[in-house]
Hints:
Layout: E1 4-10, E2 15-21, H1 23-33, H2 37-57, E3 63-69, E4 76-82, E5 87-91, E6 100-102, E7 105-106, H3 108-112, E8 117-123, E9 130-135, H4 142-152, E10 157-165, E11 171-181, H5 187-200, H6 203-208, H7 213-221, E12 226-233, H8 242-250, H9 254-262, E13 267-270, E14 277-280, H10 282-291
Antiparallel strand pairs: 1-2, 1-12, 2-11, 3-4, 3-8, 4-5, 6-7, 8-9, 10-11, 13-14
Helix pairs in contact: 1-2, 5-7, 9-10
Amino acid sequence: MKDYLVRGMTMDGFVKVVAIRSTEIVRRGAQIQGTTPNATAAFGRALTAASMMGNMQKMDNGSMTLQIRGGGPIGTITVVSDSIGNVRGCVTEPKVELVEKFPGKLDVGATVGTDGTLTVIRDLQMKEPYVGSTALVSGEIGDDVTAYFVRSEQTPTACALGVLVDRDLSVKVAGGYLVQLLPGAPDEVIDALENGIQRAGAVTTMLEQGMTPEDILGQVCGELGVVFMETTEVEYKCYCSRDRVTAALISLGREELQEIRNEGKAFPVECQFCDTIYQFTPEEIDELLKNI
């Protein structure tokens, strides 16, 4: 089953909603990065959040980067989404030791850490990107995304994310939802939404029961009802190319390129976001030196 996200609004027009099934995205990301269970859960949550946040921008050719540095053993998590919701990413340390809150429940907060920040960089095709940063709340990522929207963008938000790692260490299900109150939302709408969030429970439980993103939003919004406005297929997608890698090599400068050439053997460049390796022969390095 392909991953997809849905966007919509409650029938009263006071709440903007989005939900996603990101199982294949997280599987692919974990495969590329070679993550252990705790890192898979943390990285997967970040990929899921970034996909929804990127899609919500609705800016053609724009992008959104989510970077999480919490001081935990996973190091830095970096994920990038395009304006559709296709994502890619990497982590500093994919081989994190198993840490559980209790048997069967991975401790994502301990993996990410709380001594650091969540940073959002929005490239809206203007002169300078918008950069917002907030202190981490719990390291669980969903809570931290919620806090970011409230503190940095002054938008009351609830974000829930989930990645269920199976006994064979594969990703069983992954997904999440993000709901935002619009200006003027009355107290009864807020109360109904809070009750719906409590009633819905954990994202992984709903996904494991076979619920779709539409079902999840229906459960969360409850009596408020949901009008679905858009359904979009999303995937783990890297935009690397040989031309981009070539430009990056040229940017190293003549001295460093000459050192590579002096080794007299093919030089491999591996994309940090995917498993593509670009090989450059000594003769091709010579051509780059001529270009410089």
